[in-house]
Amino acid sequence: MSAKTFIITGASRGIGLAISKYLLNAPQSHNVVVVARSVEPLQKLKDKFPKQVEALNGDLTDFSLGQKAVDLALKTFGRLDGLVLNHGGLGQVGNVAEADLEQWKQGLDLNFTSLVAFVKAALPALRESKGRIIFTSSGASVSAFKGWGLYGASKAAMNHLALTLSVEEPDVTSVAIEPGLVDTEMQREIREDLATTLDPQFHSFFTTAHQDGQLLRPEQPGHVIARAVIDAPKSLTGKFLS
User: Fold this and answer.
1) Is residue 137 annotated as part of the catalytic site, yes or no?
2) For 115-148, how does the pLDDT look when each residue is reduced to its tens digit (9 = 90+)?
3) Active-site residue identified among 21, 114, 138, 155
4) Which CATH architecture has domain 5-180+217-241?
5) Contact call for residues 118 and 7 (beta carbons, < 8 A)
6) For residues 44 and 78, what is the distance between their CA atoms, to the nearest angstrom?
7) In this structure, are residues 162 and 202 in contact, taking their beta carbons and an 8 Å threshold?
8) Identified catalytic residue from 151, 154, 166, 174
9) Which residue intervals define the domain Ketoreductase in the entry (predicted)?
10) pLDDT tens digit string along 56-89?
């Protein structure tokens, strides 16, 4: 199999970094355009794999970033075979009755509207390559958690975007994948930064999961997602996998 080219967002740490490393290393080495706000981790990847990596830094709520990433992939590697949309954040945590509408708008811009921008930019090349789009979703997309209305709604919208693409884009395979409880910066944020904001029972659940060693290493879901963007079967298009 010849080398393919992929764009990975949220690639500077956690699951996104694990996906990128898998695609670069084994079993078949591929080309990646890594996208994130943080400069240093992406530069380290580029320094280690100078012929296989292009790095793009920026705020993911800058909707021009998607087109820039696609242009960079096509200019450097001549093709685009897959897109992993892995970025996002919790946004405002609190009951809907206390929602700050501007914070909700910012959260939806990051977690959902930016996905549309990347997908729109990538579709022409992905139609040509019969490529794949993998969305990193969440269990919060299908379950209600007190105070997580913004995050859960944005992830539910992500799932529906994958479903919509399955009927609109027959040549592209689109799948949303829930990675499970993973030892990432978001989990640290939940345990530490949101200790006084989250519902106590909810906070206790995440704290106990961490203390009991129940969190997955980023490489575990990362490798699953990486393999999916390489060769997920067409039968999975539109699915939410948990």
Assistant:
1) yes
2) 999 999 999 999 999 999 999 999 999 999 889 9
3) 155
4) 3-Layer(aba) Sandwich (3.40)
5) yes
6) 23
7) no
8) 151
9) 4-185
10) 999 999 999 999 999 999 999 999 999 999 999 9
Active-site residue identified among 12, 20, 114, 137? 137
Q: Which residue has the tokens 């539910």?
A: 156
Q: Any bridge partners for residue 54, and if so which?
A: 33
What residue segments make up the domains of the chain, in order of their start?
5-180+217-241, 182-215
Structure token pair of residue 78: 């001549």
Rg for the chain (alpha carbons), in Å? 17
Instruction: Give dist(CA 203, CA 193) in Å, integer.
Output: 11
CB 56 within 8 A of CB 108: no
pLDDT top residue among 123 and 192: 123
Q: Which two three-digit tokens encode residue 221? A: 């879901």
Model pTM? 0.92
Q: Which helix (H) or strand (E) holds 203?
A: helix 200-211
> Looking at residue 136, what is its pLDDT?
98
Residue 124, judged by CB atoms within 10 A of its CB (0-12, 13-18, 19+), counts as: exposed
DSSP alpha helix (H) spans, 85-174: 101-108, 114-129, 149-168
- pLDDT tens per residue, range 161-189: 999 999 999 999 999 999 987 777 777 87
Order of all β-strands in the sheet with 53-57: 53-57, 31-36, 5-9, 82-85, 132-136, 173-177, 240-241
Task: Tell me which amino acid residue 90 is.
Answer: L
Percent of the chain as helix, strand, coil, to the nearest 5: 50, 15, 35
